[in-house]
Amino acid sequence: MKILLVGSGGREHALAKLLFNSALKPRLFVLADYVNPGLKREAEASGGKLYTGDTVNPLEVARIADLVSPDIIVVGPEEPQFTGVVDVLREKGYSVFGALSKTSMIERSKVFARTLMWKHSIPGRLYFKAFKNLEEAYEYLKHAGDVVLKPARQAGGKGVRVIRDTRAYLTSDKTDVKIQAASKIFDELSRYQDIEYKIIIEQRVEGVEYTAQVITDGSSILPLPLVQDNPHAFEGDLGPETGGMGGISGPGFLLPFITSDEFNTTIDIIQKVLRALEVEVGEKYTGVIAGQMMLTPIQGPTVIEFYSRFGDPEIGCLIPRIESDFLEIIERTVSGRLAGAKLEVKDNVVSIVKAVAPVGYPSSRKEALGHPVSINEKAINELGCIVLYASVEEVGSVLYTKGSRVFEIVCYGENYNEVYKRSLIALTHIESLDGWPLFYRRDIGSPEQINERIKLAEKARQTYTYRASRGLVNESIVWIPGKGVVENMLFSTLTSSRGGFE
Question: 213 and 96, same structural domain?
Fold first, then answer.
């Protein structure tokens, strides 16, 4: 069986490892934007080959597909989905694991996703307002209070600003911060011409974040184990948001701070979104959808955003935990035979992923670009850990940073304490060769962090279960400039100035 994997980074290296381990013994071909040494090695070890080219250009991807003639094509990142790569490949008759351009709108447009949830009364939704121009956003932000500002388009996990504005004497200063953040978001999105709205302002919530990934063939679903991603750049969940600085997974399908009821509620939310999405766009969803969730005191499992692909580092967390033949699951998905498939997971194995990035990421990728680095993969493997090559290019025999996360180290074992200790040792085997600093988060997977998450989740659980017992889960009081206080805000009130879907 020949597989063509489209994508260049750590997520694709994780997928390559999962596919390579299949009993079907696939020949793996890769189309990447640059020579990722991990992907190159996996491809050549399987009898395949790595090609370099423009992964977001449908015609370029189709050209490589015609050259390889694969049985299955797996599209890893979101941007090729947005540009219609999956659409073109399916029109040519290929079996493709990945979302069509229409269905990938669930990630590409946060306004689309939020509007979909309100229109179809799907639980876990947040109040929001979206804007096409900066002036209207400025006016709203003067009165908005406690909010989250986001790019209305997926922008590589960057640009999100959470602003707590609960002290009246700081309101003027906080308004200035909001306006500066909004201006930056508009500037960053100016290069995207495939979306109408530029900024989305959401209700701010607090709680414990986690990711639920679900594979679907358009009819059946197969949930994967939960993972907690850590998007903030610095320890203590501080600093700008990134594509993810690491994560944890296990034991079983849950996390130490998420219950089976919360897991089931989360999967039910995602399933409702999939049904609503098919109604709205007229296409079945084939591939994986991921819900970036938060367990909040307001309503329990709450949607922060959706991905139309595997999360990164989320999928890396699952490499040592999935027992089932992953390629067989992919094959059943693209052929519409996912019904009856069962995912076997190593219940007694937990995993920790830590990403390493050059200073400059995520705010100034130009500064983080072009620095030589080295890694002692043999020493890391001897610790019982796995190396994923991410935003790193091999030129000759030297590895150079590409401006984002360079390596992801996956460590696993029977308990978090022991795995955490080994993960820190593994990171000592990565070095900058020109003195440019590299950074990572020591706290990810630590006993202190996990215990803090458990306490925070329990506080949220006590509050949302109390609210649910009183019938208050969907009860909120929201104040909107020009409208005043609105209780049980209706969908029409929220969308009256937006005119529906993008």
Answer: no
